[in-house]
Design a protein that fits this description.
This protein is of the alpha+beta class and 133 residues long. It has three helices and five strands.
């Protein structure tokens, strides 16, 4: 239950920090996502598992947390506009990570769409934290 509470907590924290965005824990493909949500920009937290697990109590390891960002631009937008939107996501999330009271999450990698899905923009933030459960 601690991991569920953690994931819910960081989602609520990001939603409070970025009220103009949609923040969720439920990944939905672009084709099924509400158009108005995509126009605002959507952040989705997903747990990707634990590495280096200890078999004895207290159990723990390194918890991988991914944050997926999605948005849709105007159909007439240039492909690089998707890239620029992704740069905007990067700025928002690094600022959020820098100002969090709890500095437990560290950003390990950031991957972006490479303009391949324009007018859709997306990127993935690969983060991790030390965890006990």
């Amino acid at each position: 239950m601690e991991m569920t509470a953690y994931m819910n907590g960081i989602a609520a924290e990001l939603a409070a920090a970025l009220p103009s965005r949609v923040v969720t824990r439920g990944y939905v493909d672009f084709s099924q996502r509400d158009e108005s949500a995509l126009e605002k920009g959507v952040y989705t937290f997903v747990s990707m598992g634990i590495e280096g697990m200890r078999a004895i109590k207290p159990r723990g390891g390194v918890h991988s947390v991914f944050l997926l960002a999605q948005c849709k631009l105007a159909e007439s937008a240039h492909p690089w506009a998707a890239e620029d939107a992704e740069f905007g996501f990067l700025e928002e999330i690094t600022a959020w990570l820098d100002t969090r009271a709890c500095q437990d999450l560290s950003l390990k990698a950031w991957r972006q769409s490479g303009q391949l899905d324009a007018p859709f923009a997306w990127c993935v933030f690969e983060m991790e934290r030390k965890s006990t459960y």
